[in-house]
Amino acid sequence: MDRADVAALANALREAFLADGGEMRERKTVTGEAFLLGEHAVGQIDVRANVVRARLWLSDEDRRRFEARPTFDPESGWLHVVSDEDVELVRSLIPAASRTAASGADAAPPAPRSVDAAPPRAAPTKRRRAAPAALPSHSRRARD
Questions:
Q1: Residue 82 CA to its chain's centroid (Å)
Q2: Taking Cα atoms as reference points, which of 110, 27, 30, 101 lies closest to residue 67?
Q3: Residue 32 domain-assigned?
Q4: Residues in CB range of 25: below 8 A, 6 or more apart
Q5: Which one, of 79, 89, 68, 90, lies nearest residue 14 by Cα?
Q6: Residue 42 domain-assigned?
Q7: Any residues with CB less than 8 A from the CB of 54 and at least 6 apart, and which?
Q8: What CATH number corresponds to the domain at position 58?
């Protein structure tokens, strides 16, 4: 995806959030924007390495619809926005996220899920470094 496409998708998402209501506030983040109603998060856009990602704070039912999209990444909890269809899905769910934020109800973005749950790692043990063993005299001659 080239920079123009990335910029167009990110701008379309930003406009969709801001078009939802006059009380929507935009906050810059390190790699994108966050959108809030009052003190409640509605969504977030992230742009880096020529990838546009979106995340919405939704009720459980709406979150399932968001997570069902083929470009949703369960390992990160972000929707990779690669087409106008992805933008339309986010646009269609912004009102639901806004209603949830306005009501003050508990909502959350999709949580990252580990596809291959690795067992927890044991605490590191303290290792002592041993001095190298002295080489026998016949080995020294073989090296020289």
A1: 15
A2: 110
A3: yes
A4: 35, 36, 37
A5: 90
A6: yes
A7: 13, 43, 44, 45, 46, 78, 79, 81, 86, 90
A8: 3.90.1150
For the chain, 144 residues long, give each residue's pLDDT as a single digit of tens: 788 899 999 999 999 999 987 689 999 999 899 999 988 899 999 998 899 999 999 988 899 999 999 999 999 989 999 999 999 999 999 999 998 888 877 677 887 876 554 444 544 555 555 555 555 556 555 555
Domain span at residue 33?
A: 3-103
Answer for the pair 57, 107: CB distance below 8 angstroms, yes or no.
yes
Q: Across the chain, which distance is largest between two alpha carbons, in Å?
A: 86
- SS3 for 132? coil
- Please give the full DSSP string across 17-74, using - where no structure is assigned: HHHT-TTEEEEE-SSEEEEEETTEEEEEEEEETTEEEEEE-B-HHHHHHHHTSTTEET
Q: Please answer whether residues 45 and 32 qualify as being in contact, where contact means their C-beta atoms are separated by less than 8 angstroms.
A: yes
Prediction pTM value: 0.73
Return d(Cα 104, Cα 95) in angstroms, integer: 14
Phi first, then psi, for residue 69 (nearest 5°) are -65, 135
